[in-house]
Every structure is written in C-alpha cells, then in structure tokens.
Amino acid sequence: MTKTKKKFHPMRRLEPYFYLLPSILVISAFLFYPMLDSLRLSFTNWDGLKEAAYIGWGNYDKIFHNNEFWNSIWVTVIWVVLSVVILPLTGLLYGVMVEYLSPNRAASGVFRTILFMPMMMSYVAIGLLWQLIYDPNLGLVNSVLGLFELIDPVNPIQYLSNADMALFWAFIPVIWQWSGFGMVMTCAAMMNIPHDIIEAAAIDGASKTQTFWRVVLPLLMPTVLTGSAINLIGGFKAFDIIYVMTQGGPGSATKVTSILMYRLAFTENRFGYACAMAVIVFLLALVLTGLFNKFRGSVDRSVGNA
C-alpha cells in the first residue's frame, strides 16, 4: 500500500510569515523608514517647519569642506578606538577575576553582581554622577588626592576643562559602566570551555597561569572580538554621557559627530544638513564594522569556531 504525499494548502506555507509580520511592521516603522527618510532629507534644505527644498548634493559638498565636521569625525574615531580596545580588555579582566580567580562560586556571584550593577543605571545619571566626582573643588577625586597631599588645593586639577585630556576623562565612566557587559560575555565563554582541555594542560605540568595564557585566552579571543564589534557600533552612537558631562567642550575637544548633528538639527534647525552627516557616519560605521567582522571571522576559523 503506497502512502500518498500530504498536500498543504498554499496559505499554510505562508503561515510562518504571518507570525513574523508584527515584528516586521514595527521594525519597518521605527528603523527602516527613519533611515530611508533621513537619506531623502539629506538631499534637501529643510528647517523642520517649511516644505523641504531639494538641493541635490549641496549638503554633502558643504560637509566635505566643513572643518568642524572632520574634527568631530576625528574625535569620534578616537572614542571608537577606545571603545574597541579598552572595553573588551577590562571586560576580560573582570571575567577572569570573577570566574578564574575567585575562591568559590558564592564569591564569584557576589563580584559578578557588583561589577554588573553600573549597567543598570541610565547614561544621564552616570554622566551627572561623574561630573560631580570630577568637580575640581568638591569632587571625590580631588578630595582624595588632596587628602594625601598629591595636589595643590589652591590649584586643583580641572579634569573636564582640560582640552587635551577631557575626552579621556569622559571615557572613564564608560569603562566603569560597560566593562560589566564584557564580563558577562567572558564568563559565559569560560563556562563553555571543556574541562578536558584545561585538565589536559594541567596534566602536562602547566601552572594555572600558564594554562590561562596557552589554552584559555586563545579560546576567549572570538568572544573578546565579538565584544569589540559591539563596542565599535556603540562608539559611533556615543552621545548621552559626553553631552551631559561636557556638552562637547571645552571648545571642540569632546564634540563627537552625534553632538554636532544634534546641535545642527535641534538648535540651528538644519535638519537636511544633519541628515547628510548622519548618512556619512552610517556608511563609515558600516565599512569599519564589515572590515572588523572579516578579521573576527579569521580569528574564529583559527581557533576552530567556524
């Protein structure tokens, strides 16, 4: 007796897509449409009130001759490099501390919770908090340094007013907040490392430190680079903490492109010009992310993850 092949109604084949339809509509409304509309507005002169006037490549021509824009790109790139390099390393350090060096699981859980707590705070709250910490006269940092007579109380250190170092000091709160994210990724990766590999290294006579450098760290590199890719994208979106702490100053020392676009759009009402800048930054971030993902893929293949 032969079995007849069951035929499905054509609509049954489309059924899975109907379940995806609400998500597709939401993503289209709040992601794809704003992106496409920003691209359209980048070719116009629009103040947000009157009808947008098409000007072709006029905004882009102005941007490429705007030194303020290129300075903001340079500041943004520095911020992105700090995010890509420092945040994964501090996350790796935290992860090793709580997962590899902790005396027991209870202590590991306590340290993991404490180090992750800053991520639950808002950017604005963190910016205001660290602005107070950096206060030259009443801030915690200068108070501690003054207690040990390491600074002159009459001439305290001006952390956020120093054009050469303001960007670095503004990045410290980001390390404090986002290292916990890298820690979680590192801990998850370390838990997935087979114990047989570590035990085999121990049998060969390697110490715990040697085992980490020879065995554990190479296996963690794909996770570290994944964190770097996420931080690369986040670095281009940096706005909240910098704006709260310095508003882009002193001068243009911390004026990343997002702050420049914000001022052009919502202070000077040059929405078309700001949208053109957003398109250029998006393309730059897209290219750098693609190149970084290629490098990350080669690392994955070298350790056998791909």
UniProtKB/TrEMBL annotation:
It comes from the Bacteria. InterPro entries: ABC_transporter_permease (IPR051393), MetI-like (IPR000515), MetI-like_sf (IPR035906). One of its GO terms (cellular component) is plasma membrane. It is found in: Cell membrane. One of its GO terms (biological process) is transmembrane transport. Residues 73-292 form the ABC transmembrane type-1 domain. Keywords: Cell membrane, Membrane, Transmembrane, Transmembrane helix, Transport. SUPFAM superfamilies: MalF N-terminal region-like, MetI-like. It is a multi-pass membrane protein. It holds the Pfam family BPD_transp_1. The chain crosses the membrane at residues 16-36, 73-97, 109-133, 166-191, 212-233, 271-292. PROSITE patterns: ABC_TM1 (PS50928). PANTHER family: ABC TRANSPORTER PERMEASE PROTEIN, INNER MEMBRANE ABC TRANSPORTER PERMEASE PROTEIN YCJO. Belongs to the binding-protein-dependent transport system permease family. This is ABC transporter, permease protein. It comes from [Clostridium] leptum DSM 753.
